[in-house]
Structure formats: structure tokens, C-alpha cells
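Section 3.1: Structural characterization of target chains.
Under the original work plan, the team committed to producing a structural model for every single-chain target entering the pipeline before any wet-lab resources were allocated. The record below documents one such target. The sequence was received from the expression subgroup and is listed exactly as submitted; it comprises 236 residues.
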Amino acid sequence: MRTKYNRVLLKLSGESLMGEQGYGIDTKRLGEYATQIKEIAQSGVEVAIVIGGGNIFRGLSGAAKGFDRVKGDQMGMLATVINSLALSSALEAAGQPARVFTAINMFPIGEHYSKWKAIEALKGGAVAILAGGTGNPFFTTDTGSALRGIEVEADVMLKGTRVDGIYTADPEKDPTATKFTEISYDEVYTRGLKVMDLTATALCKENNLPIVVFDMDTVGNLKKVIEGEPIGTLVY
């Protein structure tokens, strides 16, 4: 397997873990993810992963229902830890070593995150799952992904979504929406495209971390992206 990237930060949405069931974790989807991640890790690509928590709890929607925003975001961080533990369990069941690092000290649930421990895990062939977002409220897991991707010196951030790239409008709502093969950070910002939040986009731009947005729910796509096939949309 010829790979375009040596070290990647894979961002997965919590919602995608729900599969068809509308809430929680779909074990079939989890297994598909684990198999695809193992395949690229076994080919020598170093894989760090950040997962959202929207399948369990989303801080912003909690705040809209009257939760204190800080506590709501902290609940969201815990949701990402639950998802991270589930993914690490699925990876290890598939025979792929994985280590969970948490932004807030939660030993023995996960190791307290540090850049150097995460890189050590990656170099040792383990998948490093980075849970708890940035550890701070008011930051999304997109921003957490950008931050961690820059910290662990990833070549690219791979944003796995339900859609096969970035469109001029939401393709699920607008049938005339057209897809970009590549787009600049600035154009994402000026067009107001909902790729990821502005903090995350700015962080990637300032630190030259390219982003590839692709459909992770189609089995085999992760390998295609790693091999450099032009699926999805490149943000540069």
C-alpha cells in the first residue's frame, strides 16, 4: 500500500457512530471504523484520532435547554471519552493496539494527554485516541482536532463525515449544490461554509495543516484518501 501521508489526525463525528439507530453507539459502524483504521495503521501510517460526542451529548444543545454552558461542555467532553473508549476497545478486539489520552486527567480511564506521550505511542505503532476535546469549555472537538493535529505534527487532518466533501451549499437540502475538489481556508471563511468552526479553520491556516473532508461512512474510503486518491475536498 503506497501512502501519501506518514502521520494523520483523523477527526470522526460522534453522530456517525450512531449508524442507523439515532442515538448512542452502533457496534456495526464501530467495527467498520476499527477495520478501516487498522488497515491503514498496519500499512505503517501513524494514526491519531479525535472523536466528537454528539451521539451522546452536545454542550451547545444542552446550553439551549438551560444547562450551564461550561457544565454542558464538560458533559460533552465526557461523551467524547466514552466514544474514545469504545473505539479503542473495537481496535484492540481487531488486533490493533490503541491508547486513549484524555485532555483532563482521568487516570485510569485514560492517560493524561501530552504531545510527547502521544507521539511515543504513534511511533510505537499504536493508534493514539485523543479524548476530551481541548479540555476547555467553549471549544469544539473540531478545534480540539486542529490543536492536536498541529501538536502531534500530523501531515494532514482527515475529517470523516457523512458527506463526500465540501459543497457550495448543503447537498442534503439543495440539489443544485456543487462539490469543490479543493478550496482555500480563506474561501471557506468568506463563503461561510460550515466545514468546521472558524477557530479550527483559523488554527489550521496559521499552522499550515491541510484538511481533507471525505465520506468516512463508505467502507474503503479511508484507505483511498491515505493513498492519495482525489476523493473528498482538500482545504489548503
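The two ends are 25 Å apart (CA to CA).
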